[in-house]
Amino acid sequence: MRVAYGKKPVPPVPREHPHLDESWLADGWLALFVQWLRDATEYVAPDGGRIPEPNAMVLATVDQRGLPATRTVLCKGADERGIVFYTNYESGKAQHLDLHPFASVTFPWVLLERQVHVRGSVTRVGPEETREYWDTRPRGSQLGAWASHQSRRIGSRADLEAALAAVTKQFCDVDYVPVPPFWGGYRLEPSVVEFWQGRENRLHNRIRCEKTSAGWEVFRLQP
Ligand SMILES: Cc1cc2nc3c(=O)[nH]c(=O)nc-3n(C[C@H](O)[C@H](O)[C@H](O)COP(=O)(O)O)c2cc1C
Prior knowledge:
The structure is a single chain. It is built from five helices and nine strands. With about 220 residues, the protein is α+β, with helices and mostly antiparallel strands. The protein has a single domain, classed as Roll (Pnp Oxidase, Chain A). A hairpin with a 4-residue loop joins strand 5 (about 100-110) and strand 6. Helix 4 packs across helix 5. The protein starts with about 30 loop residues before the first helix and ends with a strand. The model is unreliable at about 5-15 (pLDDT under 50).
C-alpha cells in the first residue's frame, strides 16, 4: 500500500486557542501543562472523535552505547516535582535509567496541533506513592505486571499465557495482590519544558522554560 505523504487525511481542526505567548507561562510550566492536558482530555473533534490516551507520552532514554530508545508510556501524575510514570524496574528503559538517569518525554497532541516536551533527571518514586497508584489498578493489570518480565525474550505467546495462569493461581486465595518488587514509578524532574502550538505558514509558536540557578527562564524559540 502506498502512503500519500503530504496529503492531509482529515480537514484541519478548527483551533480555538491558536496563540501561545510568554504570558501563558506566568504561573509556571505546571499550570499550562495541566491546562493543555485537560484540553486534550476534553477535546471533541467536529466528527465526535476524541484524543485516545491523552496522557500518553513518548519517553526517550539512552542505552549504554548512547543509542536512544523511545516508547510510549502513560503519564500518571504531574506536580511541581515532575511527571510520573509506572513501569517494570527491570525493563529495557529501567536499565537505561539505571545507567543514565535522564530522560525526555513528548506529548504529541497532534489533533490540537500542540506538543509539550519535558527533559530532566529521573528518580524512582517512593514505595508508598507506587502502592497508592498500584491500588487503583484493576486486578487483571496487577496480575499482568507480575506475569511479565518486561523486555525479556519469551519463546511464545503460550509461554506468556502460562506465566499469567501461574500468577493467577499463586494469588487466587488472596484479596490483595501486592506490588511486585520489580515494579514501580519514576519521576522526571523537569529542567526544560517546551510548549509548541501550531500556527499558520509554519510560523509555529514555541515557548521554552529552562531551569537555571536563579529560577525558571521563559523564552521564545524560532519554529
Ligand atoms: C498507549 C501506550 C501506553 C503504554 N503505557 C505504558 C506504561 O505506562 N508503562 C509501561 O511500562 N509500558 C507502557 N507501554 C508499553 C511501552 O511502550 C513499552 O513497550 C514497554 O514499556 C517496554 O519498553 P522498554 O523495553 O523500552 O522498557 C505503553 C504502550 C502504549 C502503546
